[in-house]
Design brief:
Layout (H helix, E strand, L loop, with lengths): L4 E6 L3 H13 L4 E6 L5 H8 L6 H6 L3 H14 L1 H11 L3 E4 L5 H7 L6 E5 L17 E4 L2 H9 L7 E3 L14 H10 L7 E6 L12 H4 L2 H6 E6 L4 H17 L6 E4 L5 H6 L3 E5 L2 H9 L4 E5 L6 H9 L3 E3 L3 H13 L8 H26 L2
Parallel strand pairs: 1-2, 1-3, 3-4, 4-5, 5-6, 7-8, 7-10, 8-9, 10-11, 11-12
């Protein structure tokens, strides 16, 4: 029997991470094709790297009807033909979208083509109404916040499914001590020190540079080594590398640093970590949770990611230290009492189980949908 076909319409940034999570649980049973037809992120990238705290006014425009109409016109002009051609060429039985811009054209295409549709809502808490697809068979989202937005948009309750946050299976796999040590040695790091991961997200926000002077300290070096992930921001990567070289010339006792740019090694990076420090984007946050590592939020994209700070506090997933003095205070406390890093273990494990169960629920619904 010919396998059913699943088409995942994705984009870069965290949308691709959601797509990979879906792909991972369905590719054994179905033919899966993932494509990124919409990648217009230049404008967003600027705020991401340089001015995340000023993005709120842009985000709030998404609540206005005129913004939706302009976006629909934009998609129709720039991307509709590509989406239509992809649907015609692949002829999918199921379309999964991880980015809301696809839904305008899919609403029209469903009238002419016989496919099912699942829309993944790509923000966990701070959700714009346009992220929820009225004509999809299902909308999958983190929790109650997505359901409330969907109901206000007039979408039937049965089309709004809470699945937690979808994270690739690799992040959940525990490492043995031997596996952990092998990874650290391969990266030129030590096996007898705690490892702090500092991550600027997929695009590499420059805001994380504010904490570097606090990390380049002898006392930090006594207890921690640092894995720095700069994402696709090459300037950020070079800056950190040059800073390490300079600091090593003046003081041999500062922490050892391993710097990555954009990398596919995030599962290993987070699994060898003792703590993760970075921008409070949902994918990095919940990938850290899947690896059961506490998270320290030092910045976020205002508006879009504001609710993520509340998530960290509500579910006890780590700390929020967006002001430099708050981070310095947190760092001092942890250096004085390293056992603080394990105080959230039970809460992290609970959230990891919730998200894992949501991933399995997603798999079950897709299988049922395609086997009807």
């Amino acid at each position: 029997m010919m396998k059913k076909k699943v088409l995942i319409l994705s984009a870069s940034e965290g949308h691709a991470s959601l797509a990979e999570a879906i792909k991972g649980v369905v590719e054994e049973s179905f033919l899966v094709r993932e494509v990124k037809l919409i990648n217009d992120f230049g404008f967003y990238q600027f705020f991401y790297r340089f001015l995340p705290s000023t993005f709120k006014w842009v985000w709030e425009l998404g609540n206005r009807k005129v913004a939706r109409e302009l976006i629909e016109l934009y998609v129709d002009e720039r991307h509709a033909d590509k989406i239509r051609q992809e649907i015609k060429r692949y002829s999918p039985d199921l379309v999964v979208t991880t980015y809301f811009l696809y839904q305008y054209e899919l609403n029209r295409l469903r009238q002419e083509n016989d496919f099912r549709w699942i829309n993944i809502v790509h923000d966990p808490v701070s959700i714009l109404p346009m992220e929820v697809a009225r004509d999809a068979d299902y909308n999958f989202g983190f929790g109650r916040e997505m359901v409330e937005v969907g109901l206000k948009e007039g979408i039937e309750r049965q089309k709004l499914v809470e699945v937690g946050w979808l994270v690739r299976e690799e992040f959940y796999k525990d490492l043995t001590l031997r596996e952990r040590n092998q990874i650290l040695v391969r990266w030129g790091l030590e096996t007898n020190k705690r490892t702090m991961v500092v991550c600027g997200g997929s695009e590499g926000t420059n805001v994380i540079l504010k904490i570097l002077p606090d990390l380049m300290d002898e006392r930090v070096g006594q207890q921690f080594q640092i894995i720095f992930v700069a994402g696709s921001n090459r300037l950020l990567k070079r800056t950190v590398e040059k800073l390490e070289v300079f600091m090593k010339k003046t003081n041999k006792l500062v922490p050892k640093i391993k710097v990555f740019g954009f990398t596919t090694k995030m599962p290993d990076i987070l699994r060898v970590a003792d703590v993760v420090v970075g921008k409070a984007g949902p994918n990095l946050l919940f990938e850290s949770v899947a690896a059961k590592k506490p998270f320290v939020a030092i910045t976020h994209i205002e508006g879009q990611e504001s609710g993520n700070l509340d998530l960290i506090r509500k579910y006890k997933l780590g700390w929020v230290t967006e002001k430099r003095k708050e981070f310095k205070s947190w760092l001092k406390e942890v250096l004085d009492n390293p056992s603080l890093l394990s105080q959230w273990d039970d809460y992290l494990a609970k959230m990891a189980r919730r998200n894992w169960q949501g991933l399995q629920k997603t798999k079950t619904i897709i299988e049922e949908l395609l086997n009807e």
